[in-house]
Amino acid sequence: GTLTVDELAGKLNKDASELIKKLMFLGVMATKNQDLDDDAVELICSEYDVEVEKEIVFEDTDFDKYLEESKQENLVERPAVVTIMGHVDHGKTTLLDAIRHTKVTEGEAGGITQHIGAYQVENEGKKVTFLDTPGHAAFTSMRSRGAQVTDIAILVVAADDGVMPQTVEAINHAKAAEVPIIIAVNKMDKEGANPDRVMQELTEYELVPEDWGGDTIFVNLSAIKQEGINDLLEMILLVSEVEELKADQTQNAFGTVIEAQLDKGRGSVATLLVQNGTLRVGDSIVVGNTFGRVRAMVNDLGKRVQEAGPSTPVEITGLNDVPQAGDQFLVFSDEKKARQIGEARQQKHIQESRTGQSKVSLDDLFEQIKQGEMKDINIIIKADVQGSAEALASSLRKIEVEGVQIKIIHTGVGAITESDIILAAASNAIVIGFNVRPDANAKKTAETEEVDVRLHRVIYKVIEEIESAMKGMLDPEF
Ligand code: GDP
Asked: Where found in the cell (predicted)?
């Protein structure tokens, strides 16, 4: 933080005028209320033989810095992390169970799996990690917290039902996250199964099978009969290879919280997905706004383990509080540092929840464009009928303001739902409701996530509003 001359004088128990003189002598012209940079503060303090205690702040961007430190020569292949998405009842849960049962039990005496929020299976000597919470809501809500854990999305489409509204949502969520999609055409055992129709319908969303000149992988399967599971795993491994998923095992562990809760006996229990480095029992760790030392680790088979490498999910105990799903974690070699950073983050978190941090809103759009912070303006459109949604989308795309581009990341018919809001929060998007309103959950989430939701009944009003915002002419009292 910065200090004014006056504040520093107070801390040093000196007169501000004396400090101003000293500063002048050091070549810094300052007034009483002027903010001093760290160097100036240090200079003055050294004049008085006072040692400056640097405030330790740990920003989320430090995680990126850490990742950059991963040495190229240390990078090794890591398992893919996969999320299963799709319309309700198309068989996501059944597929997750089928994969677990066909694979995990092999070679595992008893084969009792523990539900810790994610699990790993092995196919031809290679591992794949599956997140146990199917659906795009969980996926995107993590992303809205800054964590991108999914490498590959499996889109389950029931062969007897075809593409449904949540199928489209899932596609848009995966695309917004730039995650490759593999199509699992499920329920092939059913009488009315029509995989060609599924392929046909998906071409509309630029998911075109290889046979038809595209590059999307389709796998036909029956989750309930456990048929086609191996094919699916093979395709996942194929995509993993193309994606060249790598990590540095030698580093301190870094990753994301998959789920966490308070356990009566064990205290805070969190499932962590290691994304880089190796996590070990005894490590000093900062997890979101919590911290501690890893007391014990249990893997997805319920076995105690001493360490966990990249893409491995483990349940840990030893944190001072319960973190949230989507929080990131980092291990520190120095226990004291972990503690200081953990405490600082906890403080900062408390402050932030008081002041609130804002996402994109139309009102500050122009400011952000001016500052060069925004090149794409992400928009989600919900309308009462498909025709209006499309008309609105195409009109919005036509708006031309130099240096910025409108990107419609999702359109849909019906009320604005929580999933729309979560996608908006994760993608920094504005939600436009055309002749529709947010439902109760969406309203609540929009408030907490500070997502800008605009409701309209006339197309040209929407265009006018967005255009004005882009040009910085938005009427503030709107
Ligand atoms: P989710 O909502 O996508 O998680 O769907 P579920 O996994 O709960 O499955 C919905 C229903 O479809 C359940 O009754 C399943 O038994 C059934 N189901 C799932 N996969 C198949 C399949 O491959 N074939 C058939 N016939 N039914 C299936």
From this structure: Cytoplasm
| Token pair in block for residue 27 | 């070549």
**What is the DSSP code (8-state) at residue 56?**
P
Q: pLDDT (tens digit, 0 to 9) for every residue of the chain, 478 residues total?
A: 567 888 888 888 888 888 888 888 777 778 888 888 777 888 788 888 777 665 444 455 555 566 666 667 788 899 999 999 999 999 999 999 999 887 764 555 455 567 889 999 998 889 999 998 877 777 787 777 667 899 999 999 999 999 999 999 999 999 988 999 999 999 999 999 999 999 999 999 999 999 999 999 999 999 999 999 999 999 999 999 999 899 988 888 989 999 999 988 889 999 999 999 999 999 999 898 889 999 999 999 889 999 999 999 999 999 999 998 888 888 888 888 888 878 877 777 666 655 544 456 777 666 766 666 667 788 999 999 888 898 899 899 888 887 778 889 898 889 999 889 988 888 889 999 999 999 999 999 999 888 999 999 988 889 988 888 887 755 544 3
Q: How far is the CA of 223 from the centre of ligand 1 (A)?
A: 7
CA of 154 to the centre of ligand 1 (A): 15
* Residue to substitute in 87, 89, 97, 154 for testing ligand 1 pocket (most ligand atoms within 8 angstroms of CB): 89
The residues with which 246 forms a beta bridge, in sequence order, are 77
**From atom 25 of ligand 1, which residue's Cα is the shortest distance away?**
187
Q: How far is Cα 385 from Cα 381, in angstroms, rounded to an integer?
A: 11
Q: Is there a binding annotation on residue 313? A: no
Q: Note whether 418 and 442 are within 8 A (CB).
A: yes
The pair of structure tokens assigned to 13 is 């128990």
Q: Whose CA is nearest to atom 18 of ligand 1?
A: 91
Tell whether residue 209 is among the known ligand binding residues: no
Question: In a mutational test of the pocket of ligand 1, which residue from 160, 188, 224, 226 has the highest number of ligand atoms less than 8 Å from its CB?
Answer: 224
CB atoms within 10 A of CB 202: 25
For ligand 1, residues with CB inside 6 Å are: 86, 88-94, 134, 186-187, 189-190, 222-224
